[in-house]
Write a structure and sequence with these properties.
Helices cover about 35% and strands about 15% of the residues. It is of the alpha+beta class. Helix 3 packs across helix 5.
Amino acid sequence: MTTDARFNVELPAAPSGMSDGEWQARLQLALAYRVVDWYGWTSVVYNHITLRVPDSDDLLINPFGMRYDEIRASDLVRITPDGEIVSPTAWPINQAGLVIHSTIHRARPDLHCVLHTHEAMSQSLCAVDAAVMPLTQEGCQFYERVGYHDFEGIVLDGSEGPKIVQALGHANHTLVLRNHGLITAGPDAVWAVVRHHAFIRNAEVQLRAMAAGKVRMPSVEAMRRTREQFEGGSAQANAMVRHPEWPAWMRLIDQRDPSWKH
């Protein structure tokens, strides 16, 4: 067991035969699943979060059929980008998850984690004929960072891959899948979850503001400056870690159910 004073949570060492890099990735991704469950962003056993195994093209993904509140670090399934299962498991993987996520991972090697949910607030925004409006301070990090992809049915083959890649572009980290759901991505699971949280909050504000009357947008200068503060790190000035909400979530989940880290 190791303990980081900033997190105040004991974490087990890597199992025999597994690299520390893969184990740390498994711990991070398992915590991401539990945080998504905590906020109620789940659809029972559907949707998916993937995280690239360090120094590898392989991905970690959830076992298809497990609830997010059940998933432990050791339960995550290691797969190749083509969907070949590498780690021992009795569970299958979600074909739609493989297609969408492997497409994004291949196109954007800088995005090591991809998080997709059908959470109701973001789904509501995906169902209206409106672009994302950065109306909150946290929402400004999505200024010029959101792509849009029209619904074509359940993604079970690679036919939509080029359109998803085009919508994502070179700078976007978030995708609005029209009439479908939300994707946020980042260099690790921390970034993906933090962005998901900020997007959903901004979506709620946007939908309420649109219903209430004329929406007041921040200036382009303010949105761009605030986005740069989030991307550069000054938005979290004086914090012990880049995203102080992550250790806070870790303590919360560990107090609730420490099985996530096994």
